[in-house]
Design a protein that fits this description.
The chain is α/β, with parallel strands linked by helices and 303 residues long. Helices cover 46% and strands 16% of the residues. Bound molecules: ligand LYEYTBR6. GO terms for molecular function: delta(3)-delta(2)-enoyl-CoA isomerase activity.
């Protein structure tokens, strides 16, 4: 624990907030590529690229929203549509979520969607966050996160919805639910998800301190399942997918659903109340002030 906190102390501090170790800067343009082979089915919206290999049944869903794949309303909407199409596509049996941006899996929820907007926008944004979680946590197909970069807060939540997590072995990368570091509180279903992933005691420490883990520490607590060299993330995800695919789909699917249904049902039962809570919490002057300071710090932090 002390070791984890010491590592955490390397984060840049600003008031009560801390940042992930930086150093990487990103271009804001991206190049889209298309496959022509008849066995491959590629589609690309502006933020999500889908490459479905019909011969294996594996779809790679790549986030390509520079600079940091933050989960904006547009990002979430495009991802939701892509996942829905793949779920309906009988030729797809499994989905690998990964990033096309260097050093970042996803920077989590887009803070700009939670700052300086009106309550209607906050409600629409929050419903889209709930929607992507509900979709992924109850996704019938196999999901594997190929975590090829840092993965704070909402990024970590998205990775935790997957059936298996493989993280790149780069000590600069971090993963975790760091909400308390921003002065905000992870909602109950974020908490349920981490409890289901690492167990109650580890989740308590993790959530209260807003801990961000290196790949090796994340492996120790079971937040990720495997750590491999970065260049092997995708091939390892494909190999792992093949192992999942060896299990009869219906048996695997029903097992997943039985294990996750109580958690999914809890959000479904309180979805409207959760949206109201979010809107009222995020609209508070004190929270807006914290987020504003955090954004300023993010923008000023040039190394
Ligand atoms: C009782 C409770 C009831 C209800 C609940 C209520 C509310 C709370 C729930 C909210 C749950 C929140 C979940 C979240 O996901 S919040 C987001 C958390 N994310 C972070 O803290 C990550 C912040 N970012 C970083 O640490 C670094 O950017 C990162 C990812 C390590 C990358 O570092 P680096 O490569 O050096 O890149 P920069 O820092 O220079 O960033 C480039 C550029 O991107 C902007 N940016 C970064 N992250 C975000 C973000 N999450 N949203 C929006 N914009 C982001 C950054 O400002 C830079 O912008 P610039 O214009 O300067 O280029």
């Amino acid at each position: 624990m002390a070791a984890v906190l010491r590592r955490g102390a390397k984060f840049i501090s600003f008031g009560s907030s801390q940042l992930l170790p930086g150093g990487c800067k990103h271009g804001r343009t991206s190049t889209l590529s298309f496959f022509s082979s008849s066995n491959r089915n590629s589609s690309s919206s502006s933020k999500i690229k889908v490459d479905l290999d019909g011969s294996t049944g594996i779809a790679v869903v790549k986030f390509q929203s520079p600079p940091v794949n933050s989960m904006s309303l547009d990002f979430l909407t495009e991802l939701s549509i892509s996942l829905e199409k793949l779920e309906l596509d009988k030729s797809c049996r499994g989905v690998i979520l990964t990033s096309g941006q260097p050093k970042i899996f996803s920077a989590g929820l887009d803070i700009l969607d939670m700052y300086g907007k009106n309550p209607e926008h906050y409600a629409e944004f929050w419903k889209s966050v709930q929607d992507i979680w509900l979709k992924l946590y109850s996704y019938s197909k196999i999901t594997i996160a190929g975590i090829n970069g840092s993965c704070p807060a909402g990024g970590c939540l998205m990775a935790m919805t997957c059936d298996y997590r493989i993280m790149a072995d780069d000590p600069r990368y971090r993963i975790g639910l760091n909400e308390t570091q921003l002065g905000i509180v992870a909602p109950f279903w974020f908490m349920d998800t981490i409890v289901n992933t690492v167990g109650h005691r580890t989740a308590e420490l993790s959530l209260q301190f807003g801990l961000m883990y290196s790949p090796s520490d994340a492996l120790k607590i079971g937040l990720v399942d495997q750590v491999v060299p970065e260049e092997k993330v995708l091939s390892t995800a494909t190999e792992t997918m093949t192992q999942f695919m060896a299990i009869p789909d219906h048996a695997r699917e029903i097992s997943k659903s039985m294990l996750r249904k109580p958690t999914v049902d809890r959000l479904l039962a309180f979805r409207d109340a959760d949206t109201k809570n979010f809107v009222s919490f995020i609209s508070k002057d004190s929270i807006q002030k914290s987020l504003g300071m955090y954004l300023t710090m993010l923008k000023q932090r040039k190394v």
